[in-house]
Amino acid sequence: MKAQDPVALLASAAAMTRWTQLPQAVQSQAIDLVCDTLAVIAAGTTHHSHQRIAAIMHSKGLCTRLDTAQPADLLNAAFINAAATTVWQLQDGHRMAKGHPASHLVPALWALAEASGAGGEAFLSAFVAGYETGARIGLALGGLQPLIHDVGTWSSIGTAAGAAHLLSNGNADVIQRAINACASLVPTFDNETVTQGASVHHLAIGIAAQNAVIAAQSAVARLTTLPDTLGRYFAPRVGVNFDLAQLKDGISSDARWSKFELLNAYFKVHPTCAHLHGLNDAVDWILSEHKPNAADIEGVRIDLYQAALRYDVDTPTCDLSMRFSARATAAFALINMGLNWQTFTFEQVETPAVQSMMQRIHVHHDTALNSFYPEGRPATVTVQMRDGQTFKKRVIKPLGDCTNPMSRAQKRAKAQSLFKARYGQYAAEIMCQVERLESDAALGILSGLLRMPGRP
């Protein structure tokens, strides 16, 4: 290894990742992310858009698809499970790197672990290795090109690194080849497709997960790669201000992680675009503190930062686009006393009550909020009542962010709700097995539970 080669150093740190050597805080966060992502996938399989694509994609194999009791082949399982992560917009994220690493890693590595016979400890080691690798690449990009959506880019490369770790038992050369292979093959996805609500967007993480697995398999097979692919090709194509040296950040002189980006993950509380979570929190606070009667609301002013406005959909036309709409999310919450993920549907947004409230909501750009991003996701909500009362709340760092984290009880309550939508009374046992995942036997037990035919 060349000591000053950032990609080689990154691969070496990934290779050195071993579950039993990780700090307790990292282990706890990793389990939380795996639990959250499996729960998001489980609930995603109940969504009509996912069911339509899953119904026509069948295969036979050893790997679990959470939408059916029938096991599938490796790539089919990775694709279908990953494609379920975005339908409710409740997936994980890393705010500063701008992406959703666990949503790529869990479905790809889960299928790969089942296909290869790996146990829980190997899965978790690969998960952390892939997360740390991908997040550093995302941070080093310095942001993404405006036409490109964040899914499937650096997260796919991190997933390839994690998959290579799993397949090679942490071989640095194999991981480095996987990074370069995926960097040359990584897909990019249209940002407008998601913001305008085209449901084909949900396939993006599925394609990226498959791509990562194939890149890792090619590395094991010793297909050759170009050593400078990440900086020469991938970064200029995807990033805006790539800094190769930043790949070494948080890696000590003995090629081990000295800090963990996994601890900077966020968990979504609301079934919306993460850019709207400050807004969603502000509305929740007003509802909790003042309980305004929707019929008595004269008008609502929403102030957002510039990046959030680039994603905002003024008049949504479908289920996905409403999750990117400040007016729709605020109106629904004000009418229904909150944003429950199971009742926040486009059919409900189209009701006369919500449509009437949307007409009373106006969204503005507050330039003063720009300075709080990307460290926060700021919003100010002002509710004007017909009797002259005014309720106002500003939120800078929404609940679920690493700077304002959910408690473990809150994370588990979210996961329980999501698992119940798919597995009913078995949700508690599934969550119990996730907690035991470092035991090799738990992965197989959990796979069996995840193949339950449906709500009992």
Task: Walk me through what this model shows.
- The chain is of the alpha+beta class and 456 residues long.
- Helix content is 50%, strand content 7%.
- The chain contains 20 helices and 8 strands.
- It has helices at 6-15, 24-44, 48-54, 74-83, 101-116, 120-140, 154-168, 172-185, 191-195, 203-220, 229-238, 277-290, 306-311, 319-322, 326-336, 346-349, 352-359, 408-423, 427-435, 440-450, and strands at residues 93-94, 148-149, 189-190, 265-266, 297-304, 361-365, 379-385, 390-395.
- The strands form 3 sheets. A 4-stranded mixed sheet has the order 6-5-7-8.
- Strand 7 (379-385) and strand 8 (390-395) form a beta hairpin.
- The longest helix has 21 residues, at 24-44.
- It is globular and about 70 Å long.
